[in-house]
Amino acid sequence: MDPHIGREFDSPIYHEAVGQFDRVAKLMGLDDNIADRLRVPQKSTTVSFPFRHDNYAEVETLMGYRVQHLTTMGPTKGGIRFAPDVDLGEVAGLAMLMTWKCAIVGVPFGGAKGGVRVNPMELSRAELQRVTRRFTMEIINVIGPETDIPAPDLGTNEQVMAWLMDTYSQHVGHAVPSVVTGKPPSLGGSIARREATGRGLMFLLPAATAARALDPKEVTIAIHGFGNVGKYAAVAGHQQGAKIVAVSDISGAIYDSDGLDVDAASKWVDENRYLEGYPDADFIDGDDLFTLPVDVLVPAAIQNVITAKNANEIQAKVIIEGANNPTTLEADDILRDRDVFIVPDILANAGGVTVSYFEWVQDIQKYIWTENEIVARLREIMTRAFEDVHSIATRENVDMRSAALMKGIQKIADAKLVRGIFP
Ligand code: NAD
User: Which pLDDT score is estimated for 6?
Assistant: First the structure.
């Protein structure tokens, strides 16, 4: 491949995503022509726009991105993140991971991702709304219910999705709930989307712990991140009888080897924004959470946190990846050699996009499902995807990440081949 192709996306996550892809494409003997097409996203949009702070005097220029990795399968789908260090390459790498994820759970989307380089924790509610609405206007021609459907991600939430939907709808002149998923239920959002990623992840706990002969009701779990994914993973793990001994956020981690009161910690964060100051557990450094004596580790905050630096100190026998790309390629090698069972991000956190798909189907059909229907279908899809990937791992004698990528890449490669090349 021409080494210059894709250099626009130069960033650690993009290199990680391409590195994972290359390793598995080689293992699969994937056709080089197809591999070249899949290494780079099909469409990417970079925008800059003015953002007026509440004090009126200050107008900052913000950078925003929307990258659509694969338009072969249907509309593209993926979250929008607001974070202080987002760049085009990060969004491109994450869009590629979304493509494999959608293929693994069998939802008819290609991968996309978006982001604005801004620290949402420093914004007032009015500022957050202005950033969201202006960014939506900047990308309005590349999103839509049949083209590209955003969702929440790091630093964005249901409210942000509601503003996005409202901005889009004002522009086209009528309400278009299906332009975005992860909206509040009052606007046509799925009643089970908020919990979907954490819940879906924990549906895999029994099978993942069984792979290392652990009893899911007896295990201890540490969760890095206590936002949308981390919090609901903690709730779902606790409901299954597991002991959640540590959770963290950007302020640090709380730890109690006897098990945390997850509801109390959640209430504390709702009222105080950060875990710091939580009275009923030890407060430790967020990075120290990774090396605690636990059975299961769930990274559910940001990327590249499990690295060559801490991989050898990790004591967990099972890692279930809630965050996208939490493990670097080097760390992945170390953990594989140490026989740690990793349920990779593209499988473990696919509950989010699965329920987003249900939400989109509900919105375009104007037919609302019950919570029981949603949760039962989510469980069925997640457990079947796990079984499929596990059987590929056993048959091909590879780790779960390679097996998941094999499943996703093969499906996309087959679709690309039958569609042919235009013109
Ligand atoms: P969120 O913003 O709701 O929560 C993020 C959590 O991580 C918070 O507790 C925050 O304090 C913590 N955090 C943020 N920056 C940090 C830093 N620099 N160091 C340590 N902790 C930090 O985000 P989320 O929606 O829960 O997403 C978390 C991860 O899961 C992301 O990688 C996202 O891409 C991935 N993901 C999310 C969904 C979803 O449905 N929301 C679906 C699939 C994957």
Answer: 87
